[in-house]
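quick one if you have a minute, typing this from the bus. theres a chain ive been looking at and ive put its sequence and its fold in token form underneath. please have a look and point out which stretches look like helix strand or loop to you. anything you notice is useful, everything is just below.

***
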Amino acid sequence: MKIYTRTGDAGETGLFGGGRVGKHHPRVAAYGDVDELNAVLGLVRATPPADFADPLLEAIQRDLFAIGGHLATPDPDRVRKALARAELAPDRVAEFERAIDAADLELPPLRAFVLPAGCPKAVALHLARTVCRRAERGVVALAQEAEVPALFLTYLNRLSDLLFALARLANHREGRGDVTW
């Protein structure tokens, strides 16, 4: 199978389960933003220290792949069997909240706005947080015109909170405090 198909050269793309839309379509924008977030999380994982929250970050990447698959599917019934492999566990949000609470126990209280700065791992996590916020906006926009599971919106919202907490924690563990505004 070749990487290039030439079917998108005129500005359209195929959707999972059939159909074609313009590459500017809100569905394509939403799953594209989620894909970008996934790639940025790959950068986060590659940034030293590589073992910092790595199992959690890998699990999130897998979740984002599943979310992207659902977002790329305008008619889930046509590909129900394939999407069954891409189910998102509802307890993932609670897992994020537990991880945020655990980080907060280790961190000094937050008393000011935090600049996206510090050690390379923290900066990469802040970048992931901002891309996550954009992905969330894209999925919210799609939800205005198509059915999107509410869990996806909650997941992305809480994920950005988790990435913020992990950025602070990365700086803290490197012996750096928050860079405040």
Remarks:
- The chain has six helices and two strands.
- The two ends are 51 Å apart (CA to CA).
- The longest strand covers residues 12-14.
